[in-house]
Amino acid sequence: MSLHLDHLAWSVEGRLVVDDVDCTPPRGALTGLLGPNGAGKSSLLRLVAGVQQAAHGAALLDGTDLLTMPRRARARRVALVEQESSATAPLSVREAVLLGRTPHASRWGGFTAQDHAAATRAIQEAGVQALAARRLATLSGGERQRVHLARALAQEPDLLLLDEPTNHLDVHAQLDTLAAVAGLTARGVTVLAALHDLNLAAAACDHLVLLEAGRVVAAGGVEQVLRPEVLEPVYRVRCLVLEHPETGRPVLTFAPR
Amino acid sequence: MTPSEGSAGAATGRGRLPAWAATVAAALLLVLSVTMAVTVGPAEIAPTDVWRSLVDHVRAALGATVDPTATLGLLHDGIVWDLRMPRVLTAAAVGAGLGVAGAVMQSLTRNPLADPYLLGLSSGASLGAVAVLVLGVGVLLPVAAFVGAVAALAAALTLAGSLGTITPARTVLAGLAVAQLCAAGTSFVIFWSATGDSYREILGWLMGSLGGATWSSVAISLGAVVVLLPVLLASARTLDAFAFGDTAAAALGIGVGRTRWALLTVVALLTGALVAVSGAIGFVGLILPHAVRLVVGAAHHRVLPLTALVGASFLVWADTAARTVFEPRELPVGIVTAFLGAPVFALLLWQRRSASGDLA
């Protein structure tokens, strides 16, 4: 039982952006969604989150199709962290995280003690306790990304979708974010993350799916996907794969063809 | 304390009036404002007499054998109940409605400069009103204004919808197109056919005025507020979820397109009804929501009720000033709200100069 993306397809203005994507990211693992710009990574995440309606296919989480679920019920199982999102309203960090409780809270009443407890847990798990009283607009890009992660965690999802979670972050903040994600997968949350940095993917992911022009061109373990003969035609570069002396994981270097 | 610490405190409650206290205070202020405003004017009337007269009128209406005019005397009773009270109550209803409509509009379009008239509502209403005032179209002015407002909204939403998903940007641009067209139509009618007499009447209406308020104005504006305001207040949680934009709202389980259509329609009906009785009174729906957010933060379940109460009191006093400052001449209340509102808006902008660029 896990996540199964079942022949998902979506097109815009007659162009297939997501083309018959069929893959099975394992449960309780971090699956990296790789591919060059425009390969359809973000679009695929938006389809699975139900933000964009798929033209075809299903996203089965433990056998239930997420795409045909009622919106609120789906938002209690799936959370999405966008690449960049800014607020126009002057929210505090805690208020922003509490918004994650929207699909759980009743439409009329205020937030319950349970909602507040879930927000507090999410703040701790994302490691932003020190920021909780701050105003969102005063945070750095990296701090804000962590707050968005906390907001998604407050939804208490089984499936977490991250769109370039380490974009614009310095090395330390990148590792911090991935460490927080590792904590989630350890307690059974399935994470699907679009990533640009192949070395980061090599270091942190359990499973990889490589997209090109909306199609899956490779899927499997890190060593299976991060091979020169797989990457070179997709990214149109020369690629050398080394072995990390400490972790034994692949380290990649690139050169123009 | 650095500016950033100050704004953090403002957002989380330290050193700030609790929201419930602010709301109770605003409710008391509104009751006081209505009672006081009725006493202001050429005829001197004591606030306590207003209350006693109110009790008499209620008892008389319930069938008790009291002379409801005994407290104030026939003349003053007429001034209070036929002239001032309908005007003050209309002002309160219009102020409350415009404030909340503006707050909702700002959140739905994610635009801090949005106001209730954004979708061409006031321009449509003006066109309807001018058609009555100048061309002598044989319908009541409020009806024509309301029809004009709703027609403008329908045109704007149809245009926005025909472009694809109703995004904030499309909504604003479509409204702009409709507003420009209606404004041109209004100017054309005035330029072509207005006479000297009708100019002042038209100008008064275009700037917003409560001068002609009657008990039917109260019925229209208060009725719209009583029916439609609860719908907007109940959508506080949904509006909160729009804070990070459409995608984030959708990921939180909100039906974004459907919600935006529904709430824009409610805002338009409310605004249309208010514009129909008062003309396009500016600034209330633009500034008050921002001022209230500075006091109680951005959460809509606090912002919306407080904006309604403060908006009501604000417009009651603005209208009282409009009818008394240059007695016996009367200013359109829209001029007063702008005179009061523009400096307050400038002050808010100035206070927020240290914050990191987000004005809302």
Automatic annotation (TrEMBL), chain A:
Q: Can you give the residue ranges of the ABC transporter domain? A: 3-238
Under the heading InterPro entries, the entry gives: AAA+_ATPase (IPR003593), ABC_transporter-like_ATP-bd (IPR003439), P-loop_NTPase (IPR027417)
Q: Which UniProt keywords apply?
A: ATP-binding, Nucleotide-binding, Transport
Which PROSITE patterns does the record cross-reference, listed alphabetically?
Answer: ABC_TRANSPORTER_2
- List residues traversing the bilayer: none
MF term (GO), any = ATP binding
PANTHER family recorded: ABC TRANSPORTER ATP-BINDING PROTEIN, HEMIN IMPORT ATP-BINDING PROTEIN HMUV
Protein name stated in the entry: ATP-binding cassette domain-containing protein
